[in-house]
Amino acid sequence: MAAASLLTPSASMVSMASETSESTKEKPPLFRELAAAAQTGASNFILAYNVRAGIAVLVRIVLLLQKRQFKAIANLKVLLSEKHLSFRVEAVSMGLFIGWFTGGYQALKAIIRRLRHGKEDSEALGEDPMTTALAGTLAGSAVVFVEPERRRSLALYALARALQCLYNSAKSRDVWHFWGSKWAHGDSLLFGLTSAQVMYTFIMRPSILPKEYSSFIQRTGPVGYKVLNFVQRNTSGLPVEPAEISRFLSDKGSPYVYTSTTNLPNCIPCGLIHHPTTSCSYGFLLTLIKAMRSTLPLYMSLNIVPQVVLQFRRFLRTPLYSLFQGVVGGFRSTLFMGSFVAVYQAAICVFRGLLKRDHKAVYFAAGLVSSFAIFIEAKSRRSELALYVLPRAVDSLFIMLRDTRWLADVPYGEVMLFGLSMGAIMFCFEHERQNLSPMVRSLLDRFLAASKQ
Domain locations in the chain? Predict the structure, then answer.
């Protein structure tokens, strides 16, 4: 029963879609376009659901492999037991979001074109910039299917992509150039600044990061919640009792001995961060291994599943090469993340030795240093990673400024922001494709393939 619940009613939906396609051949143009939009939305719902489900199942398989539970992989009742299917709600949410956006965009284009131009032949009219921008903006309301706590991050991510393509458009027309825009490593600089902001936020105010994002950093890194609390109190001038620190070290069975007797120490020693050992160098190695082991299932899934699902035809032609690419990409991303975490810890150790006194700026500077790990990733991935981290950095900065009353919240602002951003992205997709990033362009091509035929 649990295994069956993974499957969407894809066969019946595809059958219904094909029947709809056959029955609409003789219908008026608008009706045909709306039917095609419904077919696009339904097929993309299935695709998005299966991608999310596939990632979850592959993560489960890799975890079982790490635990050497090989028999469990072959037993569907164990592999897909009910307690491991918690991703289903998220998968349906993602399916509705993608399906509603793509199908809605195609339908809205047809309706807006009819309202603006009457019954003129849509093929003769072609794609009108105003129509595509307006349709993309309105279709962006599909973001309401996403959980409220994720909408802001998704809206900021869309904004980053929209600004990227609009900037590329302006630059191609010689309208505006940003200083440093031709730097070979501008994407790495952006990643450094944004990741430093995110890590500063995680150390100083972890509660304002999205819960899952903060939990991911916590699981990947070596720092315990109590150590974070000690650092936050110490940098804010609040007392940290020596007995609390000694109790923490005792509970962890740490060989490190805390000798300070004051409740206002100059800094929290780095020995609490790498508490399993007193050696900073050995602590670096332990953290690198821990971070890589914890992120390996995730990055393997994120690199292999898209190779199979989103590029299925290429996978059928060259399955071994596609899997090889996914595995290599997964190991490379795992090494990047492990190095980022370990170097961040090492930077804290170095700053402790140099400065002797703690300061909030240390945790931003450590983020800048650890961001050099981005050079482990392929050049084509660096801008994608920078633009992935950018929304988190902007979001945390916005909340900090809002809390100091520099900025204010706007009701449903994330829905409006996402809609406007998607309007700009769809304008570039239809009229200035060269200004979109390759990843966004290929994703839109995949999800809107039916509308382009």
Answer: 2-180+414-452, 186-409
Confidence of residue 191 (pLDDT cuts 50, 70, 90): very high
Give the closest residue to 275 by CA, choosing from 227, 214, 235. 227
Mean pLDDT of 153-176: 82
Alpha-carbon distances of 127 from 98, 99, 134, 238, 441, rounded to whole Å: 22, 21, 12, 62, 17
Structure tokens of 236? Answer: 């804010």
Angle at which helices 186-204 and 361-370 pack, to 10 degrees?
140
The residue behind tokens 């939009």 is 37
Q: Taking a C-beta distance cutoff of 8 angstroms, is the pair 62, 302 a contact?
A: no
Mean pLDDT of the 326-337 span: 94
Two tokens, residue 121: 């032949």
Kindly provide the b/e burial profile for residues 83-105, where b requires at least 16 CB atoms within 10 angstroms of the residue's own CB.
eebebeebbbbbbbbbbbbbbbb
CB atoms within 10 A of CB 232: 17
Ramachandran angles phi, psi of 118, nearest 5°:
70, -140
Determine the longest span between alpha carbons in the chain, in angstroms: 86
| Cα distance between residue 34 and residue 42, in whole Å | 12
Q: Please write the tens of the pLDDT for every residue from 123-142.
A: 545 578 899 999 999 999 99
Residue 266 contacts residue 297 (beta carbons within 8 Å): no
